[in-house]
Every structure is written in C-alpha cells, then in structure tokens.
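Researcher: I'd like a structural prediction for the single chain below. Treat it as a standalone chain; there are no partners to consider.
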Amino acid sequence: MVHKQRVLCVVGDLVEDIVVHSTVTTVRDTDNRSRIERQRGGSAANVAVAAAVAGAAVRFIGRVGDDAVGQRLEAELVAAGVDARVQRGDRTGAIVVVVEPGGARTMFPDRAAAAELGAIDASWASGVTWLHVPAYSLCAEPIGTSTQAFVRRVRAGGAGLSIDVSSVAIVEEFGTAAFAALVRALDPNVVFATVEEAAAVLGAGQAAAVLGARMVVKDGPRPVTLRHADGRVEQVAVLAVDGVVDTTGAGDAFAAGFLVATLDGAGPVAAVAAGAALAARTLLLPGAALAPRGP
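Model: Treating it as a single chain, here is the predicted structure.
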C-alpha cells in the first residue's frame, strides 16, 4: 500500500557509514582481520529510507558536503523513493562503525556538514503531516536551532511529532535535564528510546508523563515497553530474530515501521509490531540496509 495522502518528514544526518566488520576479537596495537564496507548512513536518512520502503511518502531534510560523496548519498535517497531536500557546504560527514562478532557495534562519528544545517526553507514544510527528529538534530549547533524552528512551524500546521533519544552519549553531553526540558517544550506525540536512553532522560522508574508524551522503550529482543503519558504501562513482545548480522540501523527501521503504521491509523501495540518487523529486516544485513520481505 502506498501512503501518498500523508507525508512523513525527517530532519537530520545524511552521512557515509564506513562499516568495519571485525572477524576476530579486537586486539590493540596490531592488525585485526576485518571486512570494510561503505554505505549510506545517518539516523535520519535511515528512517527516511526505511519508511519509503514501507510505503510512506517521505521527505528528508539535511545537509551534505559540496562533494562527490554528498552527491552520491543524495542520489541514493532519491533512488529509494525519498523526496530529498538538502543544503550543501563543507564536507560530507562520516561515521566509522566497528561491528564485532555477534553484531555489537561501536561508532566513531564525524558529522561535518550534517551538523551545520542552516535555517530550513519554509516551503519544505508544505504538506508535512508528521515530523521525526533524532536527538542528533537537537543537540548541536547550528542544526539544533534550525530544527527547533522547523518543528515549531510544522507543529503550528497540525503535524504530529516524534523524537528519538538516539544516543546516551549525545544526551549526556547536552545535559539530560536540559534535553528533557527541550523535549517537553517541543511537545512530541511519541518519544523513542532504548532502555538505557530512557533511564538517562527520565531517571530509573520515572513515568513518561515527565515528558508529556507516549514513550516507546526498546530493549533489544526483549518486549517493548509502552509508557503512556497518563501513566499506563504496556509490555509488547517482539519476535526473536535468528542470524543477526549487524544491529546498525535497527532502531531507525523500528521508528520508521512504527510511524508508517501510526500514519496508517494503527494503535500503538500494532505500531510496535510493524516497527519490530521492519527492524528485523535490517538485522539480517550489514549496515542499515533492509533484507527483502519474507514469504
């Protein structure tokens, strides 16, 4: 089904992922056997592509370098069916992702142009019915100021809003109390987080009412916790995935599946199932790519 009547917009990073698949336990100060791949990356870009694959009409807004890498990455978004609106300048960002045997990953980001997103053209808000923003788009400058202004614009037009906490390190560097206050001020409908991210923002045991939004808390292969703004808590089981290759992009795919289902009228429990199903498809391939849908 193609959801042309609703437009999901994502603001944030479009970078190159340099994925290092280590085939051995890492040993310092010597060679370690590996396989290295270069792929499209960036949390926001991953969500945009996954949502397009799931059938949504998607717009991506971000900044890349005025270079061949940026041109290639933008072309990949367009080829995936994303309406890409990009600024250009400086050099395209990159993230080195070290994937250990078993799928655990460590990231070394150099966001470069992605974090330099300037004021967003007001016309780019046209038709947007839902806006998704990773914390990366809020916790640096000038992208933070640009994104917050765009959030206020689309919210004034009645669009829904979701925020992904994205990274404990990013939020702690910004300040957890300051980040929680910013989220409350932006007034999202949904906040995505892992268990660790939720604890960092809310503090252990605190309710999603602190943020005034429904919180969708992911815990790897374990049940997803829905923390509703009214204090209700639901546990939603997710299907186990065998043969995990790489967890890169799984959270982004989950957010995409959840949001596409929500835009299509699904309730939160059904949206969790849709998000988990889309996330499972990226666990089976290196990077944030999506495996073909099963029979």
